[in-house]
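Lecture 7 notes: from sequence to structure.

We start with a single chain of 211 residues. Read the sequence below before looking at the structure.
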Amino acid sequence: MNLNLKLPQQLRQYSTSIDKLSSFGVIHKSKRLGRGRSSNQGKTSGRGQNGQKSRGDGKVAPWFEGGQTPLTKRFPKTGFYNYNQTNYATVPLSRLAQWIQQRRINANTTITIRDIVHSNLVHGLSKKDGVKILSDLKPTAQLPPVHIEASSASKPAIEAIEAAGGSFTHKYFNKLSLRQHLNPHKFPIPVHEAAPTKKADILFYDRVSKR
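Now the structure, written as tokens:
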């Protein structure tokens, strides 16, 4: 295939045909270091003379600034991060009622976290500890009698669910049990259901189970 017919006159002298193209230089071969002085990459193998970086394990940490106080130590630490907090993905009752009206979620069976995630009501729980139901039920949204099983729910949300003739069940999940609940096909050998280990969680789930 000749490309000369498709180019202006002043560019035809620089054109070529596809069958004349070569793969020369496409594959880059790595340098073979340490093959003697006559190989141009021998002796110090391109690492210079002496020094920390010329050694086999002479790596420098990315935060190292030559010995001066690094940036991470020159400024004070502010704020607080609670490692024991639970980070839930929130689901408002109005959106849940809308999903049920659009038949994205089947209200005839117990609605679990798996149903909520697979219906795209919540987009992924990779960085979450579960799902919490919140109450922002608008007067125009009609919530049918549904039975929901999730990690947690606010008190007004539970009252709204029970007023509609449904029920809410608290269920504890850790990271592993939540992954198995969402994708059971990835666990050929099922793991046991998780039980709360913190004192506050034990007291909470024991209290809600007796309601």
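The chain has a mean pLDDT of 86. Keep this in mind for problem set 3.
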